[in-house]
Each structure stands twice: as structure tokens, then as C-alpha cells.
């Protein structure tokens, strides 16, 4: 159950909602026996492709706003192949309360399953505060492709406050735990050690047991005008993380596309 409660109750205002997607393998294809809509999330299954099930997460209202507590819980069962996308950008906006919004994505991938999480960019609008997290729990034979992009502020406005955390477990062991914060009073977020004056960022994570492990890092881009990106192996795992910053989302997208091509050619 979800709904906006009275805005004069700052501790409890906002939407509480968790949408759930479950995919399973049936013969030569993947089906989605469970899609549970909640709050602003409307789940729509699109045309399967090459045995992969595909689900689009559509937002039916402005969210996340201040005080919202939103979550997506996505599971690919054993040998399932699932792609989840969003058709439009997510915009973090200020709400009726100064309380931060939270948006938690939980991805669980069983043995020999494959999951792609490919949302459109997240835009941190002026005055908003959002804590976003993504937790990836992989079986040792599972594969995941995750791509996320952020734009700090709309045209001609400063960004809101945005914190993101990406945690990856493989076979129950930690692979990655990365936390980044932007905007507001966050120390040095727009300095040379973080964004260097850019306003767009993105990351691409690929974990796949078919990949070689511990290949050298690759500098994808190092140009003040076109952006910066590096592709880095995650130690002792067939896993790679690309991180990019640039002036525009288009530039970030091009850098991540190049990183993905490097991975596919390994």
C-alpha cells in the first residue's frame, strides 16, 4: 500500500512503495510470473527478444519527492535472462517536506542467470535530496550488466543533493562497495578529485563468469571537453567497472558505450 500522507507530518510524509519483479526460466525462454506494481511504479512487460524477458518500469506520478521511500526488488531465477529498463529519465524533486527521499534497487541473480538493469538517467533537480542505492547479489555463475547515469541539475540550475551507493556481492562475498555524494555542502564534490567542474556522471558494471579476470585498467577518455572515463577490473573476479564524468549526458553515454565495447572484445 502506498500513498502521500499529510505534509505537516515531516517524519512520515511521502510515498512508501516497493515494486517487485520475478523472472524464471521455462524451457527455452524466460517468463515473468510476478510483477507487482506499487506507488509510482507501473510495470509493463514488453516483447521478449532472443529468449530474454523484458520489463519496463514506468513512473505514474512525479517521484521521488522529498520524504518518499521507494524500492525496486528484481530477481532473475536460475538460468533466467531478464532485461529491465525505464522509458524516461527519473527526476528527483523537492517535496512538501525537507526529509530526503530514498530510492533503493535490489538485484538478485541466481545460478547461470543473466540480468540487465538499464534505466534512463537520474536528474538531481535543485532543492531535492535523494539517497539512492543499488545492491547486486549474484550467484557465482550469474552475470549482470548495470548502467546508471546522473545529471546534476537541470538547465541553468544548481543540482540538488544526491548520494549514490553501489554494493555488489558474488557468491556471498563482497566485490564492490562504492559511495559517492554530490551537491550541497558535500566536501569537494565539484573539485578536480571528483567531477572537475562537470555535471554529468555515469557508471557501467559488468560481471560475467565468461570474462577473463584482472585485465589491466583502460583509460577510455581524458579530455576536458569530451569527458573522462576509466575501465577498471574488480580484483579476483570476472568483473569490470567503468566510471565516467563529462559536461553532458550524451558525452557520458558515448564514454560508457566505448567501455562496453572494450569489455565485449576481451
Write up this protein.
- This protein has one helix spanning 249-264; strands at residues 16-26, 29-36, 41-49, 52-59, 69-76, 81-85, 90-92, 101-109, 114-118, 122-124, 129-138, 143-152, 161-170, 173-182, 200-207, 218-223, 227-233, 239-246.
- The radius of gyration is 18 Å and the shape is globular.
- It is mainly beta and 266 residues long.
- It is built from one helix and 18 strands.
- The chain has one domain (16-209).
- The N and C termini lie far apart (46 Å).
Which parts are unreliable, with pLDDT below 50 for 5 consecutive residues or more? 1-8
* Overall outline: globular
Radius of gyration from CA coordinates:
18 Å
Number of strands: 18
Biggest sheet overview: 11 strands, mixed
Rounded average pLDDT: 91
**What portion of residues is helical?**
under 10%
Estimate what percentage of residues fall within beta strands.
Answer: over 45%
Q: Could you say which structural class the secondary elements and strand pairing correspond to?
A: mainly beta
Number of helices: 1
What is the total number of structural domains? 1
Amino acid at each position: 500500500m502506498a500513498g502521500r500522507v499529510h505534509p505537516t507530518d515531516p517524519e512520515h510524509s511521502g510515498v512508501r512503495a516497493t515494486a517487485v519483479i520475478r523472472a524464471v526460466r521455462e524451457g527455452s525462454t524466460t517468463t515473468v510470473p510476478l510483477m507487482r506494481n506499487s506507488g509510482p511504479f507501473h510495470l509493463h512487460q514488453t516483447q521478449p527478444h532472443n529468449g530474454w524477458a523484458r520489463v519496463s518500469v514506468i513512473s505514474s506520478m512525479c517521484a521521488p519527492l522529498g520524504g518518499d521511500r521507494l524500492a525496486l526488488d528484481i530477481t532473475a531465477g536460475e538460468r533466467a535472462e531478464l532485461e529491465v529498463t525505464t522509458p524516461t529519465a527519473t527526476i528527483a524533486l523537492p517535496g512538501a517536506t525537507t526529509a530526503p527521499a530514498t530510492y533503493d534497487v535490489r538485484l538478485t541473480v541466481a545460478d547461470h542467470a543473466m540480468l540487465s538493469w538499464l534505466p534512463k538517467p537520474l536528474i538531481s533537480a535543485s532543492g531535492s535530496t535523494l539517497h539512492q542505492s543499488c545492491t547486486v547479489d549474484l550467484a557465482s555463475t550469474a552475470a549482470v550488466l548495470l548502467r546508471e547515469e546522473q545529471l546534476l541539475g537541470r538547465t541553468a540550475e544548481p543540482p540538488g543533493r544526491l548520494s549514490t551507493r553501489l554494493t555488489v556481492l558474488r557468491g556471498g562475498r563482497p566485490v564492490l562497495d562504492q559511495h559517492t555524494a554530490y551537491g550541497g555542502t558535500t566536501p569537494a564534490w565539484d573539485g578536480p578529485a571528483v567531477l572537475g567542474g562537470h555535471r554529468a556522471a555515469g557508471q557501467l558494471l559488468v560481471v560475467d563468469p565468461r570474462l577473463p579476470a584482472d585485465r589491466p585498467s583502460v583509460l577510455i577518455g581524458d579530455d576536458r571537453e569530451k569527458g573522462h572515463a576509466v575501465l577498471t577490473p574488480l580484483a579476483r573476479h570476472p568483473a569490470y567497472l567503468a566510471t565516467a564524468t563529462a559536461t553532458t549526458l550524451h558525452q557520458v553515454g558515448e564514454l560508457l558505450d566505448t567501455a562496453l565495447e572494450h569489455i565485449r572484445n576481451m
